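Step 1: inspect the first sequence and its tokens.
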Amino acid sequence: MLQFVSNNSEESSLLFEQLKKGRSVRAPKYAYRASDVYVYCPEDKVEQLKDVLKSYDVNFIFNDYTLKNLDKKIITHFDNSKLSNEKRSFLVTATELGAWVEPLISYLDKRMGYTEVSLLQSSYFLHQKAFSILNTKRTQLAKRSIDLFVAIVLILLFLPIALVTALFIRLESKGPVIYKQKRVGQYNEEFKVIKFRSMRVDAEEGGAKWAKENDSRVTRVGNFIRKTRIDEIPQLINVLRGEMSVVGPRPEREVFIEDLEKVIPYYRFRHAVKPGVTGLAQVSYPYGASIEDAVWKHKYDIHYIKHHSTLVDFKIIIKTIKVVIFGMGR
């Protein structure tokens, strides 16, 4: 049997009692500033984790069961169901003796502000109560009420910008000012998203294509309204219709989703919520339209769904308004 020595404190004992009673416990401040993080996983997963974690500025120490002083240590675990009973007992005892213990992906989630999707397993999604945006009707009702209020306010606020944009689009190139395109929404149901046209009318004569940097199909006005997100303003109509939310994962096209879900784990989970006019990915990651960009955006989208709150929504809305009005985006 493994033996342990600890500087057990009143704080650690209280933490353990709260965990045993099933109460939600806020991580101590030191948890997300730690330079050393211990990872416990099956031996055949070590190389995979090392490869994923090599870009993180953290010293990850793997499967050190000789660790004695556990007080205030940061201990994470991955695929722990495949550990032996003795090794799982180590993790339980570590919690009792003052360590902060949680799943590796949850720890990275909170420390980095995005979800490391390459480590996602089905268990991450099977605790629906952890997703208040999915589980609580009151949260959904509040979000819809805020959507309606914010959409109306933003339409009034951005109406002058929208009118000027429509005029410049009309002057620069032939074709409609407004562009409608099928996108996938909540529960994988398709709807037509409404945007200001930013490309030439013949942009997809040869079929659907990823947009790219310095895309020749994008007009000069289109380039500006994309960078400032002005092209998204008409989507506030989609919000009023109930097809979108003000904040959420950006809606994507089915033709691209079919490719993306082949390389991005649980990509369609983003459709558990309504797509958004703006989102955490849009204010956290530069504009891009490639597989690599989609992976990064998915990291932020999953994090948003898991950690949604009204306060987070308002912060994202404020950041987006700054982008549109002051050009303060990425």
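Step 2: inspect the second sequence and its tokens, then contrast the two.
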Amino acid sequence: MKHIPVLLKESIQSLNIKTNGIYIDATYGCGGHTKLILSKLGNYGRIYAVDCDIKTILKYKIIDNRIIYINKNFSKLKYVLNNKIGKIDGILFDLGISSFQLNNPQRGFSYMSNGPLDMRINQKKKKTAYTLLKNINEKKLSEILKKYGEERYHKKIAYNIKKYILQKKLNNTQDLSTLICSISKNNKFKHPAKRSFQAIRIFLNKEIKELKKSLKISLKLLKKGGILSIISFHSIEDRIIKHFMKKYSTSYKKNIHHKLPITEKEINNFYYKNNTINLKIIDRIFPSKKEIFNNPRSRSAILRIAEKI
């Protein structure tokens, strides 16, 4: 299946590309967003393409001297780009996993095709999904399915996963998907195993922790007037992004005095921690009906845009 970048036109337009600007594609993936940014950059423009999955970079690498590839988690970027702090014109996040990763059964992300229970985004890491499911206790697994997958049948699924592992009946993604489908109910938009696979993947790869770190680092890297543009695909990530942008927005700071009960000390502490960084929330964009028809993967996408001021 060909990779189709989600909200491609809208996300790149939001960055207001400057001919000789410096940009970061924080989630390079198959390179679709980077390619469009490059088409708008001049000879002296630069883009840092970041991805912790070296196989993805190598497969979709674009040969262009304006691109600098970084094979790391974005949360580690402040150590790599220390001399660029406060100089970046725009940062784009396209969260989740790429089509290349999802469509390769050997990566173990798909509940639709059979493969090993892997699910590692960074394959340098040792712990796989199977290792996680084997060693985690039932209660903790249930909490993960509920928190990161919002799975209604989290307790029953967790119980049966542990039971099947003990019986050596859970050996691949097809086994896991079949188990979940026997418990969780389907609807016309979501496969029954989607929520649980998502939850296991998010926890295994520490995606929420990485996102929170990355958002804070992005504010330091951006110059004043720089744009932060983020595409998310599920409500857990979107809530984090929405609250983060609101926390650093000037409107939130102006209204903080009206939020009761709050002490003078708390107000002073808030301003002390946040007075050097302000955000202006610009927009929230959803995919059009046409895009959803042409690319069903875009159905749950939300693009949030903010400017550092």
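Step 3: confirm your contrast with the notes below.
Residues 28 and 53 are 9 Å apart (CA to CA). The chain is about 45% helix and 15% strand.
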